[in-house]
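Reopening this ticket.

The earlier resolution said the output was attached, but the attachment link was broken on my side. Pasting everything inline this time so it's all in one place.
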Amino acid sequence: MSETTTAGAPASRRLRLPSFSVQVLLGLALGVVLGLVARELGPAADGNPNWLTSTLDTVGGLFVDLLRAAVIPLIFTAIVASIANLRNVTNAARLAGQTLLWFAITALIAVAIGIALGLILQPGDHTSVTQDQAAEPGRTGDWWAFLTSLVPTNFLALTASTSIDPESGAAATSLSFNVLQFVVVSAAIGIAALKIGDKAEPFLAFNRAALSIVQKVLWWIIRLAPIGTIGLLGYAVADYGWDAIGSLGRFTLAIYVGLALVLFVVYPVLLRAHGLNPLKFFTGAWPAIQLGFVSRSSVGTLPVTEQVTERNLGVSRSYASFAVPFGSTTKMDGCAAIYPAISAIFVAQFFGLDLSVSDYLLIALVSVVGSAATAGTTGATVMLTLTLSTLGLPLAGVGLLLAVDPILDMGRTAVNVAGQALVPTIVAKREGLLDLDVYNSDRRGDVFADGGEDRDKTADLALTSP
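Inline output:
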């Protein structure tokens, strides 16, 4: 008599879902299709987005909101736990220094590529945008922002912003977390717990339990990624489309060529130089990279980036829980290096202004340290305004590039996230904190085990690349 399931069906005929990565890829494809359909439907009769566009926007937005909701408890519990483990680590200061050094090295390489592409492709001399499209942005970069962002304004690092509806006059206030400030708060509590010794053990035990709970909830959220991907990419296609690329085609090409060179040439070379297989890195980091691409949010992708860095790439948890959250606010090769370098050259060429060698050196300097200087209000537009103001270029040039910014932001964020996983991996390898067996694993099974610590070898929903 053949083996049957509880429902009476043969065990061999049980429905098996495709691997998690295949589900996400299917979500990408379905998102593009639904986005094209929504775009063809056009706006609703009242001029608002049609029902399909609104649905895609809501689904994608809710998924990103869920991920962001997990960021704060994950940062706090992970950083406190990692600092508590520093009692067994003798080179904590060296790890922090190495992390910052490699942040700077990779940023310098990226900005050099951006400058070279700007000079070779000359996007500002080959565009159909006109000067009447120039407009200064609503917010700009500030060199003092980094220092002020380090000082928490309240225990939870909360910031509030109020906007007034011009039609109804109603005021709406929204709250947001300053991630860098919260890293500082979490680190301070962790250090205090470490300093008082045994008296803090009940708190640390509670924190370890809370971390396991947060990781469990995080996995439930991540399992929704295929659905979230449909909404995020579908809305991007429906709302932005690709029409805007026409007038800024060479600029868009320059940005994506630069991003591709960093992601698929520079990063693999650095990995090879450290004796690591680049293919293993990409198969391990791919879940975070693809989520960064569709969500356009490094902070929203942070929970996934930290998980893949630790559990796919084999970086020590005590180090990854510090390096990845810190990198999510200060390590942005896409937004803070390639993009502002090419954009600054575009603006200079468009307005007929010549840049000197010292100007190019300034671009490199701003790109290397600027992402930290704009932490807390970080973003490609803020980073670009910081670069333009440092060079004395017209800030109105920012308005010329806004039409294609959402399209560029997908690629920029993917590179940002890849770099945020790359640097901890390289530093961990150099410092002997990388589990090479995990890094070189075949990625089969569920790398986000429900048990938190142990992996479920029999699971068929793997968060890996195909």
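Reporter confirms the inline version is readable. DSSP finds 17 helices and two strands in the chain. The chain has one domain: 20-159+173-443.
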